[in-house]
Design goal:
The structure is a homodimer of 464-residue chains. The first copy, chain A, has 464 residues and is α+β, with helices and mostly antiparallel strands. Among the domains of chain A are: 117 residues, Uridine Diphospho-n-acetylenolpyruvylglucosamine Reductase, domain 3; 107 residues, Alpha-Beta Plaits; 91 residues, Alpha-Beta Plaits, CATH 3.30.70. Chain A is 38% helix and 21% strand. Chain A is built from 17 helices and 18 strands. In chain A, strands 15-12-14-13-17-18-16 form a seven-stranded antiparallel sheet, with helices on both faces. Chain A has a five-stranded antiparallel sheet with strand order 5-6-10-8-9. A four-stranded mixed sheet of chain A has the order 1-2-4-3, sandwiched between helices. In chain A, helix 10 packs across helix 13. The first copy, chain A, starts with 11 loop residues before the first helix and ends in a 14-residue tail after the last helix. The model of chain A has no long low-confidence stretch (mean pLDDT 95). Chains A and B meet through strand 9, helix 8, strand 11, helix 9 and helix 11 of A and strand 9, helix 8, strand 11, helix 9 and helix 11 of B.
Chain lengths: 464, 464
């Protein structure tokens, strides 16, 4: 992706004040800036002038006030695992790293909620919760920070049952562009009290404020978890299985699709022997009886749609083995072309259009000689692909880019969205306009009202 | 509630233009204005200068543009069943009634979604869907319009399983304060594309724009539905049953609490013979086996907490009979004091604090000689009470008002919200400030950005 051209502002006077505030928790070291200016995607990075490591809400507020006074941009940073250029410091300025804000502040086991600082990662939280029989199910793959997951409206494999960050964030502490510390939402499971600011900040990608604390909804660890894998004669059969499963209201926890290219990659990479066919990975949560019933129901649906035998796993170690193939999908894809890089992208369509969208996308991949395995959170109609491309061949990058354009437009034409879970960053701003039309002007009005000087992660989501 | 004092603006020039646009679909008849200026709550109404009946997005846009040009207020109106003075035309102006916008625009059965005009009511939609095996579960009691339900973030008895309007609105068509027609969200089950405008308009109570179309998430009608009623020795026992049920992840569809005062009222009103004790009404949705298992699990939990025998109902007619007591609760309450009026109010707290909150509230009711039965959507920690008061005795109204103040403050002190589902209207604006603090200033910035002349339902949610 071409880096958008934004004017850099002189950060020096702000950095001087920040150094007085933070001491050695302000870094201008090249390596640190490098690390914070590049995400794990294929989008070009851009280095901040400095990286600030904050520890408290009040400190974040002071940092923001200094930046605001000097009109210096500020880019919030969790773990840098976003995928659409979210953290590139397009106009320089300060990267605000929340990794040291890593305290679990409260767990209310009876109410199934907790509050954490933004830098707590999802794995850290789940470790913390395990002894209490609780879990936080949202799993985007990476061990992302919960602040970052809220900021990008993350979801992942469990969303079909448990929802996304949209449904699982109860409230936030946010530092606004003028340094005000604001709490949104609360601990009640529902509320009709005023505008839903929580949902406004969830998914705003750091452009409206810095998320410093997250109040989360938790779930009990299910009594029984069963995982199963089923290969299909055709992609249509796999997708029909998904549609019927969802329509029948089977409360499936995960339904993941891997196409035959990805299965081949996974077999090679993880030394497995799955059929090289479109394949569904399932997980069922519930009581013993309920997971059995769910498994039987889905087994029957799959059989009706050309599905083969299920491979089942119920013990934790069997389950992790079975999911290994899914979790290693990205590395397996990269291993198809050693020395190449990966460019992940995603779209999401109404489920009834999923087969059509994937099949046309695959045809387009083949016709253009690209290597791009497909995996999908198909219970939600969401699928990803990874372009495995040679970074030294600009023509190849351009070919992938053109394919991505067509795929997004295809998804929009089918009633879908330009991104199901990766977000907009600077990589999908043009697609956002194509999808949301006049609504983008409304987003811009809100941005201007809350960040008139455009210091919060400028050049992301909206070009402003 | 005292009516907030707002300046009336001269509506005459706007009405002239509106009459040219709408003909006899603009009414200035006293009876029509009376009907549209009063909701079903105890809050004082205020009549609009005229009522406009729109039929299309474009017509709504024209109406709004006329009002905007003359800076005349506009109050959107669904069925007038809101409860916090939402529709009182505090500054006069035009009431925009969407009742004639009653078309179901599309149903996508495979994708479990549909799009309706704002005036379609929830019962109308469910009638329409039944033959396809689909349902829209959100049930606030009244047969409200879906536009109004979106605008007030309605929920009700099924929210514990299916969520509220927040979770079930996929997208909206909204006419903004300048007449622009904007679409938000879309049909994809999830999206990370830009700010969540859908959730911003859901619950904005007509203060940010007029909702004209709603894209909704649907659900399959469950294979099996079982309802049961269980009386408890103590309120604590009933609430502990709820907490354990939720913690164990039993996917219960409804858990409703009626206190002994309400049960007494229901017995008298509906000629029933339930024990005059705190009582839980349950409903379980799922497969035959799953509802049985849920019922058994909950039965065991209830027995551990001083619950008596369950009365079960699985046939539709038995179920409706059983739920009759719950549905007639409001009228049963009113019948306790013939000739009196009802003032419903609600709060929502974390479930672990529910017993405490209800018990203190009941003590306060008794100490102040009020008649105020309690019902609650306790799976969410949400409960309501209805003050049954004599409208001709101001002292009685004042006593109820003071009690309401204390109850809301109690809920806030326990980590709750001033309203779980009724909304803010003009009845709870002060409580919103107490609850949300600085966040109210952020709401105000957004309101000013989207409605600079404050023509959209002025004096509600925010005093501005």
């Amino acid at each position: 992706m071409t880096l958008p051209a934004l004017d850099h502002r002189d950060a020096a006077p702000a950095l001087e004040e920040l150094r007085a505030l933070l001491g050695d928790r302000l870094s201008t070291a090249e390596a640190v800036r490098e690390h914070h200016g590049n995400d794990v995607s294929y989008h070009e990075g851009a280095l901040p002038d400095a990286v600030a490591f904050a520890r408290t809400n009040e400190e974040v507020s002071e940092i923001v006030k200094i930046c605001a006074r000097h009109k210096v941009p500020l880019v919030p940073f969790g773990t840098g695992t976003s995928l659409e250029g979210h953290i590139a410091a397009l106009a320089g300025g300060v990267c605000l790293d929340v990794a040291q804000m890593d305290a679990v502040l409260e767990v209310n086991a009876e109410d199934l909620d907790c509050r954490v600082q933004a830098g707590v990662t999802r794995k850290q939280l789940n470790e913390y919760l395990r002894d209490q029989g609780l879990m936080f199910p949202i799993d985007p793959g990476a061990d992302a920070s919960l602040g970052g997951m809220a900021a990008t409206r993350a979801s992942g494999t469990n969303a079909v049952r448990y929802g996304t960050m949209r449904e699982n964030v109860l409230g936030l502490t946010v530092v606004l562009a003028d340094g005000r510390i604001v709490r949104t939402g609360g601990r009640a499971r529902k509320s009709s009290a005023g505008y839903d600011l929580t949902r406004l900040f969830v998914g705003s990608e750091g452009t409206l404020g810095v998320i410093t604390e997250v109040q989360l909804r938790l779930h009990g660890i299910p009594e029984s978890i069963a995982s199963g894998v089923c290969s299909f004669e055709s992609l249509e059969g796999a997708v029909s299985t998904v549609i019927t499963t969802i329509q029948m209201g089977v409360p499936v926890a995960r339904i993941e699709l891997l196409d035959e290219v990805q299965m081949d990659a996974c077999n090679r990479y993880s030394k497995l022997d799955y059929p090289v066919q479109p394949t569904l990975f399932f997980e069922f949560h519930g009581s013993e009886a309920s997971t059995c019933e769910q498994a039987e129901t889905v087994g029957a649906i799959a059989a009706d749609n050309g599905g083969g035998e299920f491979r089942w796993a119920t013990k934790p170690e069997e389950r992790s083995q079975l999911w290994q193939a899914r979790h290693d999908a990205y590395y397996a894809a990269l291993a198809l072309r050693p020395g190449c890089g990966g460019w992940p992208t995603d779209v999401c369509v109404p489920i009834s259009r999923l087969a059509e969208c994937i099949l046309e996308t695959k045809r387009d991949i083949e016709e253009n000689g690209l290597v791009a395995p497909i995996v999908g959170h198909v219970g939600d109609g969401n699928f990803h692909l990874v372009y495995v491309i040679d970074p030294n061949v600009p023509e190849e990058v351009a070919r992938a880019s053109a394919h991505n354009d067509r795929m997004v437009k295809r998804a929009l034409a089918l009633g879908g969205t330009c991104t199901g879970e990766h977000g907009v960053g600077y990589g999908k701003m043009e697609f956002l306009k194509a999808e949301q039309g006049e609504a983008v002007a409304v987003m811009r009005s809100i941005k201007k009202a809350l960040d008139p000087d455009n210091i919060m992660n400028p050049g992301k989501v909206l070009s402003v």
